[in-house]
Amino acid sequence: MTEIKIAIPLHGKMAARAFHQPSFRRRLTESGFAPLYFLSPVYFRAFDFDPEKYFELQVESYDAQYEKHFLLQQLRMLRRFVVVTETTDMRFREVIESKLFDATLFGMSAQMTFVGATRRLPAMGRLLAELETRLYPTHEHEKQFKERNVSCVLTPGMGNYGFWNEGAFAREAQRIGLPTFAAITNYDNIVNMGYRGFTPTCLAVWSEQMADEAMKLHRYPAAKLEITGPVQYDRFMTPLPQSREEFLRSLNLDPLKKTILFAGGVNINHYFDIYRAFVEQKQRVWREPFNLIVRPYPHPKLTNAPAWTVLQNLFQQAGAYISNSGAVDANADRSAEFRVDLAFDETPDELNYLLRYSDVMVNYFSTIGLEAAICDLPTIHVGFDSYAFGLRFSVTTSFLQRQTHNRRPLRLAAARVAKNEKELFDALNAYLGDRTLDSEARRRYAESECGALDGQAAVRLTNMIQSRL
Known about the structure:
- The protein is built from 25 helices and 13 strands.
- The protein is an alpha/beta fold.
- It folds into two domains: 4-64 and 129-229 and 453-468, 3-Layer(aba) Sandwich (Rossmann fold), CATH 3.40.50; 244-450, Rossmann fold.
- A seven-stranded parallel β-sheet has the order 3-2-1-4-5-6-7, with helices on both faces. A six-stranded parallel β-sheet has the order 10-9-8-11-12-13, sandwiched between helices.
- Helix 11 links the parallel strand 5 and strand 6 (202-205).
- The radius of gyration is 23 Å and the shape is globular.
- The two termini are 15 Å apart.
- The mean pLDDT is 91.
């Protein structure tokens, strides 16, 4: 049987961890596909890849076009906000805040008035996407599509905010008549990332809830939509080769102790708050000694901050384990981080173990809260800021709690939200005393977001593509 060459652009972490993981690559091969990966320059230039299977995604050309054309910038900015949700309302205000001291009063007023007046108009998103497609076509990969006999394309996202490059890639494929498929890679993409940039041959969503939101917010046609589930979470359905005792001992932690996982974001102030709570006040956390694991968010905003080195040393001196999810070393080498993203290692990553073997997780309303629910890990979201002076609103817990996907009743029922330190310690004592608390709520929440959690999302996605070719 002739292989079906499928081109897949990978620009961000979520896409890489979904569509380059070994199980998905195997599934593609078993289904008769030959994947050709177009990697963002930071990935492509970090390693030596097979030149017959890996190519550089022309991000720099796309960025140059964007920087050159003012109208293109305005089209994309407005397209980000025409999906009207609580999150996009706040993101619009965040844009205004960022320009308060840079833009002229007239320019700021004109932009606010224009965006505010047009973002709620019917069919505005479709018009903006059509204008961008017609006025600013790109042709960066068309020659490669033809030379490599590409049969179809699979992109993460639909060319909305954060997926501009993948959107340009997809439109190039559509321009020469290639079927173009898209799969959502995060649970907030439909409600938070603005209007789609193109209409795929078929769109893969996670659940009925996500399908309803795609049809309602993006006016997406039901006939071009299928529920497949999240490919990247298939890995949580497979057994782990190491037991809990073996895994914790490999981290020099005591398997007889309770284990608390803190998964942080980019706001470094939150790490100081956690240090004060879990180290300086550890007697209030649990009546016995416990393992503390700190998993820093792998972003240069955090890891390049001078204060992070100080914090890391403080945590380690206190006996905490730093889960190095992709550290940047002193030479700014990010290859360890990229190796995790691209899943070169066939064995389960450390996060997979942490989510299944910890006793409770503390977090600030990020995606990992959903992953914890899938793994039935009790979660406490910190809903207060001990120190907020001088911070932009977008990194505060108030902003996070007001986002559309974080206000869903099932999400709130699946975890505890601590509004102060006393509630944080009370929740810790409750979950450490009984890990099964809220287990059924976690299951309902995970299924509402992800659909069937049976480890078969990759099978359904490949079947969807084959059935539409």
